[in-house]
Design a protein that fits this description.
- There is one protein chain.
- The protein is mainly alpha-helical.
- The chain folds into two domains: 27-219, no CATH class; 259-375, name from scop, CATH 3.40.1690.
- The chain is built from 15 helices and four strands.
- It has helices spanning 15-23, 31-48, 50-64, 70-73, 75-111, 130-137, 140-172, 179-200, 202-219, 224-235, 238-259, 297-308, 317-326, 338-357, 372-375, and strands at residues 266-269, 274-279, 289-295, 313-315.
- A four-stranded mixed β-sheet has the order 3-2-1-4, sandwiched between helices.
- Strand 1 (266-269) and strand 2 (274-279) form a beta hairpin.
- The longest helix is centred in the N-terminal third of the chain and has 37 residues, at 75-111.
- It is rod-shaped.
- The two termini are 48 Å apart.
């Protein structure tokens, strides 16, 4: 028989296992998708601010070709000119370039669904194990990452080479054009090149999304024993839960049974052990029905409720025992007991007449007819 410790992890992770992994800092996200969305966002921001960027660089280029001879004569002029340059250009650069960079960092956090977890910073000696390090080094994950990196380098190199080879000579013709026109043309080429690169890496992004999902769920796979242990820990032992459900169902049936006693016509009891509540409606029932029955404390409870609703109580040792053992709650009595119960109901009707007219209280019937096959009872538990 195979040892449970060597059992293969072939089962999908449970919801509780996924939540625990998330709390430990092991979240599922595609780094390629994150990078792609960040670059797209960064590119959109620059496209929106393209005219401001072009004008800014035009001003920087024009000012770079202006030489102030006073700088060589007075050192204070250089300092004042530097301050003016900072005010005129650097603040604009911060608005146009560094704000998008800050927004890009914020988007990277949002897209990666990153959460800070203290457990992820916890020191573990297992991370220093060289054997496990070698396993990670030659793992399929590293091979896939290497494949994606090589493929991205090849694609980016091809796109850059294509744009350089096709637009280099054409760009030389713009040396005779204005600075603004040259910058606009350069900006459009760079933007088109980056956009082409993003389009080319879409298949890599799609592959990475499915790969990361597969690798994540594979890493969190569980054995059947782990699933069973987790179920016991979170939901409780199945046997205990089954007993609890049985107890709850029994308690519910008891409450329903006790609530129906008020509708009964008579309660048949013996001295201390049994109590059976019977109901009969000649217009809607084919035979008397058992609404409740019980022994011991439950029998006393039935009698207590019967006294509360002034339900007649008939004492019969033999009939009470037979009704308790050979009837079911909510079911009609056996046909073999019709004659005996008919005597009981006749007495009940006499009691009702006595309540209306008064006089002598009717005597309870005795010596009920009970078939021989019902007289032999198994030994009472009570």
């Amino acid at each position: 028989m195979r040892d449970d410790n060597n059992e293969e992890k072939t089962e999908s992770p449970t919801h509780h296992r996924l939540e625990r992994a998330k709390k430990e800092g092991n979240s599922r996200h595609s780094r390629e998708l994150n990078s792609f969305l960040i670059l797209i966002s960064f590119l959109i921001i620059f496209w929106i601010n393209k005219y401001n960027i072009v004008i800014l660089f035009e001003n920087i280029v024009r000012s770079s070709f202006v030489f102030d001879n006073s700088v060589t004569k007075d050192g204070h002029v250089f300092g004042s000119n530097s301050v003016l340059f900072l005010k005129a250009h650097v603040i604009s650069i911060l608005k146009i370039i560094f704000f998008p960079i800050f927004l890009t960092i914020l988007l990277s956090i949002i897209f990666s669904n990153s959460n800070f977890h203290i457990k992820s910073l916890k020191f573990s000696f297992s991370k220093l194990n060289p054997i496990s390090g070698l396993k990670r080094l030659f793992s399929i994950q590293i091979i896939v990452e290497l494949f994606k990196s090589i493929l991205k380098i090849l694609l980016v190199s091809y796109v850059v080479y294509f744009y350089v080879s096709h637009f280099f000579l054409r760009s030389l013709n713009f040396t005779s054009k204005s600075v603004l026109l040259s910058l606009k043309y350069s900006f459009s080429i760079i933007f088109s090149c980056i956009l082409t690169i993003l389009i080319m890496i879409i298949p890599i992004v799609v592959f990475d999304i499915f790969w990361e999902k597969y690798a994540y769920y594979k890493k969190l796979r569980m054995t059947r024993k782990e699933i069973l242990d987790e179920f016991k820990k979170t939901e409780g032992n199945p046997q205990i839960r089954s007993r609890i459900r049985q107890t709850m169902r029994a308690s519910m049936r008891r409450r329903i049974m006790l609530s129906s006693i008020s509708k009964s016509d008579v309660i048949v009891v013996n001295a201390t052990h049994y109590a059976i509540a019977l109901q009969y409606n000649e217009n809607s029932m084919i035979a008397p029905k058992v609404l409740a029955k019980g022994s011991g404390e439950l029998a006393l409870k039935i009698r207590e409720i019967g006294d509360k609703y002034s339900i007649p109580v008939l004492f019969s040792l033999s009939l009470a025992r037979v009704l308790y053992h050979y009837t079911d709650i909510g079911q009609y009595i056996p046909s073999t007991l019709y004659a005996a119960v008919a005597e009981v109901l006749t007495w009940v009707w006499k009691v009702r007449d006595w309540k209306k007219k008064g006089g002598t209280f009717p005597n309870q019937p005795h010596n009920f007819f009970i078939p021989l096959e019902l007289r032999t009872l198994k030994k009472d538990k009570n």
